[in-house]
Write a structure and sequence with these properties.
This protein has 92 residues and is mostly helical. It has 3 helices and no strands. It has one domain. Helix 2 packs across helix 3.
Amino acid sequence: MENWIGIGIWIVMGGLIGLIMRTLVKRPEATPGHMTLIVVLGAFAGVVGGMLGVGIFAFEDPRSLSLGGMAGAALLSILFTYIYRWGVKSLI
């Protein structure tokens, strides 16, 4: 049960990081909207980053509520949403 709670925390944390990155990274030519896409992208990146963090940092005792899982979820969701808000939008 603890692992499911940790995965839920990864999803919520990734969505919140996506919303924070939406407010921090301003694009002058950005169209309104995309909030749902940014939240889903942040949540997806949070789950993938959490799995990678647990796999890399807590390989012997894999728990989703470990420091490696939380750090991996936060870092990858920041990276994905930043790339979407800044990098991909400038390429289109």
